[in-house]
User: Fold this.
Amino acid sequence: MAHTRGPWEHIEPDNWHGLAGLVRSAGGEDQIARVEIAGWKPNAIGGANGQRIVACVNACEGLNPEAVPLMIEVCEVFALWTDGKAPYCELEAAGEKAKAAIAKAKGES
Assistant:
């Protein structure tokens, strides 16, 4: 699936852009989305939503999003192990899954 390459940036609502904040490519070449909250004036929720969208996209730049569920599964096993709640054999299996998740995230598998 193709999308606008990062990094992205969030522009707060102002008199020029109207009541909506903008999500755009850094440098402003491409407008990606308008971030609005119902109402007649800009507010903190709309700005926070735009900032969150941009932070998520920029943090995941270059990663295959299909790898995220496997990464979470692996992290959960490691977290249980550090709390003494997962046996060593599960840790070893999680290590192999971690390698697979990293490869998938990087597009190497």
Observations:
- The two ends are 17 Å apart (CA to CA).
- The mean pLDDT is 79.
- The first strand starts at residue 8 and ends at 11.
